TrEMBL record:
Annotated protein name in UniProt: D-3-phosphoglycerate dehydrogenase
Subcellular location as annotated: Plastid, Chloroplast; Secreted, Extracellular space, Extracellular matrix
Record bears the keyword Chloroplast: yes
Lineage: Eukaryota, Viridiplantae, Streptophyta, Embryophyta, Tracheophyta
Catalytic activity, EC: 1.1.1.95
Source superkingdom: Eukaryota
Record key words, sorted: Amino-acid biosynthesis, Chloroplast, Extracellular matrix, NAD, Oxidoreductase, Plastid, Secreted, Serine biosynthesis, Transit peptide
SMART domains noted in UniProt: AdoHcyase_NAD
Residues of the ACT domain: 530-606
Protein family membership: Belongs to the Cyclase 1 superfamily. Belongs to the D-isomer specific 2-hydroxyacid dehydrogenase family.
Involved pathway(s): Amino-acid biosynthesis; L-serine biosynthesis; L-serine from 3-phospho-D-glycerate: step 1/3
An annotated Gene Ontology molecular function: phosphoglycerate dehydrogenase activity
The keyword Plastid is assigned to this record: yes
Length: 839
């Protein structure tokens, strides 16, 4: 047992300062048994003595198995860890138990939410999903909390394929309906006449592991098998007698359609009214993949109209479906309760596979089936950040240009650099290119751990070339070029003179740029989306296209034209902030002299969303700062900055003259906000858990926000908030001009005796060569009931999170997607949290 002395305050904020790290069990004891009152008075400082039980003395990690797992897997786990089998836990019970566990194993029935990771107190190291799909695991929260997620993607492949064939045959011969009829005392042989499978065409939509196994079995039944998969290998398909075709041909010619595609934005409701209208009348559909790939209401309409004769479904958009579901109750629907992986053999295989992955991860080994990001050294992130973003975006651009049915089989990446080959680590870049190529067309979650594994499993051969050029070795790369051979292109001009799809990019002023498409030189920032147009070079083309976009209020950020010669062929690359409508793109294509056009979407997450909160991810260097706890002087510290990006100084305690502080190697954008006001219940866990930033909900902070230009002549009040006329339904607001005038730091409310400033110091951001003060007070969540500013009442009534901006002079008022990161270490003394906002 250990005693810890904790200062207690009678207000909604509780400041905790631990002399040593406590066992994980302490957080549960503290959260469940200790409460702080919220009276309006502020009593003198006093101390509580809290007794915390020690952690397990066995030294073995604890694995919580939250759903039934095969005995073989349990036996393997018990050889290495303490195994706690607790099934049918409520979300609250899971959050309570998880702080005592190092690993968690679930199937599809347990939701591993952000709250689970927040409740773990940092102890949870790995989550194992006994199966393929990871829809029930919050991957972003897992990576933010330094937790590895692994799955078992291979053991149930045969079981899922067999279930697909079982449904296929049962549907064709009306087995379920006939069975129900006989059991009801009827004998209706003529009513349940079926159809034969021999000689019929079955289209496999999604030719991965399960899809190819279904194809083999369908061939054995005498069926003609075609398949569509934008990433499938034609050679692998031919080896088992399958023809790869386009999606349109597959749905138009098939007698049977079997779905085996992942649920991604591209496949969400891919079978809809429009798709059903293109199908052969009397088609039959089997789905053992994901429920969301079918528009279920549209399927009912297609059944009623006679377009679809029958359907057999093992998965649904909502599971379990509602009892009165028209789809489930339809007489020509055969349904099963998600039994795809439910065979005894598959269950044992999955149990062993996931147990091995979890044990390996707890031992510190890299798992081939990891589905989220590993820890990347900070020095690599700091130097390669813009190039990593460039690499992923080039991959995403390249795959959007691929057409045809052969899929991407080989990829060549060329790195131009003045550094020696051994001095350029391209693993992160290669992983991000792979991520960009694969993620838009699959459900794969690609990262540094699994990038090469995923590429190999998909038959993608990647070759890398390092080109040494003259120049300064301070810059790691001059350019990255991505080439895809032996494919057709949706944009013919992307094919280079040597016959490959070719895109090339550079980093300019910290921003990724597209500099070559095919053989055409362009220069356009890879922000927002890009429209490519091939045209005859002639006057007025830029104006015509710009006019069409302007009529739809689509903002053009960049425009560049590359040409072979004056008045000859040219490619125009247009960067747009908003996605144009289909009608606008069609109008652009109809402009005389434009021969082809293509919209390329830039949906890039990158690895920089991962692991920010884990101290193991970000490396630090030491820096000295001056005494700023009492006054502002001209002797302010200066730190170097590059291309508008600076270093963030992370204060972990009050500072004194000459103090050593941690300087993050992580580069941040110049458009930042650092002070957040919000209704208190938004951050209830934050102050209940002693200002632990890992308890902050990024889902609450992040998302669409309204940027408002508001003058700061005096304090913000409820009246000022009302005058802004913020529309109803807006839940995040960014004040553009707040805290940008440094003279305010000399005003009375920011005097040297201001408590928050005096005791907790301040945080700084280097913006170009100018260093600016970034807010002085706490993360305000209506901290004191007796002194809540009036604008907090407005925020509470409207459920609004308010972020105060810094240096947003170049940002126009409007709606933006914002990303906040709480930058503060757990257990910091006082812990006045800041949020960085990037517009």
């Amino acid at each position: 047992m250990a005693s810890v002395k904790i200062p207690a305050l009678n207000n909604p904020f509780v400041s905790l300062s631990f002399k040593s790290r406590l066992p994980s069990s302490f957080s549960v004891t503290f959260r469940d048994n200790l409460r702080f009152s919220r009276s309006s008075s502020r009593p003198q400082r006093r101390f509580l003595v809290v007794t915390a039980s020690s952690a397990s003395i066995s030294g073995k990690p604890t694995v919580l198995v939250a759903e039934k797992l095969g005995e073989a897997g349990l036996s393997l786990l018990k050889q290495f860890a303490i195994v706690d089998c607790s099934y049918n836990l409520s979300p609250e019970e899971l959050c309570t138990k998880i702080s005592l566990c190092d690993a968690l194993i679930v199937r599809s029935g347990t939701k591993v939410s952000r709250e689970v990771f927040e409740s773990s107190g940092g102890r949870l190291k790995v989550v194992g999903r006994a199966g393929v799909g990871i829809d029930n695991v919050d991957l972003a929260a897992a990576t933010e909390h330094g937790c590895l997620v692994v799955n078992a993607p291979t053991a149930n492949t045969v079981a899922a394929a067999e279930h697909g064939i079982a449904l296929l045959a049962a549907m064709a011969r009306n087995v379920a309906q006939a069975d129900a009829s006989v059991k009801a005392g009827k004998w209706q042989r003529n009513k349940y006449v079926g159809v034969s499978l021999v000689g019929k065409t079955i289209a496999i939509l999604g030719f991965g592991k399960v899809g190819s196994e279904v194809a083999r079995r369908a061939k054995g039944l005498g069926m003609h098998v075609i398949a569509h998969d934008p990433y499938a290998s034609a050679d692998r398909a031919r080896a088992i007698g399958v023809d790869l075709v386009s999606f349109e041909e597959a749905v138009a010619t098939a007698d049977f359609i079997s779905l085996h595609m992942p649920l991604t934005p591209a496949t969400d409701k891919i079978l809809n009214d429009e798709t059903f209208a293109k199908m052969k009348k009397g088609v039959r559909i089997v789905n053992v993949a994901r429920g969301g790939v079918i528009d279920e209401e549209a399927l009912v309409r297609a059944l009623d109209a006679g377009i679809v004769a029958q359907a057999a479904l093992d998965v649904f958009t909502e599971e379990p479906p509602k009892q009165d579901s028209k789809l489930v109750q339809h007489e020509r629907i055969t349904v099963t309760p998600h039994l795809g992986a439910s065979t005894m053999e598959a269950q044992e295989g999955v149990a062993i596979e996931i147990a091995e992955a979890v044990v390996g991860a707890l031992k510190g080994e890299l798992a081939a089936t990891a589905v989220n990001a590993p820890m990347v050294p900070a020095e690599v992130l700091a130097e390669l950040k813009p190039y990593v973003e460039l690499a992923e975006k080039l991959g995403r651009l390249a795959v959007q240009l691929v057409a045809g049915v052969s899929g991407v089989k080989s990829l060549k990446v060329s790195y131009a650099s003045s550094r020696a080959p051994d001095d350029l680590d391209t693993r992160v870049l290669r992983a991000m290119i792979t991520k960009g190529l694969i993620e838009p067309i699959s459900s794969a979650y690609v990262n540094l751990v699994n990038a090469d594994y995923t590429a190999k499993q998909r038959g993608l051969r990647i070759t890398e070339e390092r080109i040494i050029i003259d120049g300064s070795s301070e810059t790691p790369l001059e350019s990255i070029q991505v080439q895809i051979a032996n494919v057709e292109s949706k944009f013919a001009s992307a094919i280079s003179d040597s016959g490959e799809i070719k895109v090339e990019g550079k980093v300019k002023d910290g921003i990724p740029h597209l500099t070559k498409v095919g053989s055409f030189e362009v220069d356009v920032s890879l922000e927002g989306s890009i429209i490519l147009c091939r045209q005859v070079d002639q006057p007025g083309m830029i104006g015509k296209v710009g006019h069409i976009l302007g009529e739809e209020n689509v903002n053009v950020s960049f425009m560049s034209v590359g040409r072979t010669a004056p008045r000859k062929q040219a490619v125009m690359a247009i960067g747009v902030d908003d996605q144009p409508s289909k009608q606008s793109l069609q109008r652009i294509g109809e402009v005389p002299a434009i021969e082809e056009s293509k919209l390329l979407l830039q949906l890039c997450a990158g690895i920089f969303a991962f692991g920010i909160l884990s101290s193991a991810v970000v490396g630090y260097g030491n820096g000295k700062i001056f005494d700023i706890t009492h006054k502002i002087t001209s002797q302010l510290p200066t730190f170097g900055s590059v291309n508008g990006l600076g270093q963030f100084i992370w204060l972990v305690a009050s500072i004194k003259n000459g103090s050593t502080v941690n300087v993050s190697e992580f580069k941040l954008g110049t458009h930042t906000g650092t002070h957040v006001d919000a209704p208190s219940h938004f951050f209830e866990k934050y102050y209940e858990q002693g200002f632990d930033v890992t308890s902050l909900s990024l889902q609450t902070l992040n998302g669409p926000a309204l940027v408002v230009d508001v003058p700061r002549n005096n304090n913000i009040t409820a009246e000022v908030m009302k005058s802004l006329k913020i529309p109803r339904g807006v839940h995040r607001v960014l004040f553009k001009t707040l805290n940008t005038d440094r003279r305010l730091m000399h005003s009375k409310q920011f005097a040297s005796d201001f408590t928050g400033f005096k005791t907790d110091g301040a945080q700084w951001l280097v913006d170009n060569t100018d260093i600016k003060l970034v807010g002085l007070d706490y993360l305000s969540v209506s901290a004191y009931d007796d002194a809540a500013p009036t604008h907090h009442i407005f925020l509470r009534n409207r459920e609004i999170v308010l972020v105060e901006g810094l240096n947003l002079d170049g940002i126009k008022p409007g709606k933006y997607n914002v990303h906040c990161l709480p930058l503060r270490m757990e257990g910091a003394d006082g812990c006045p949290t800041r949020c960085i906002l990037t517009a």
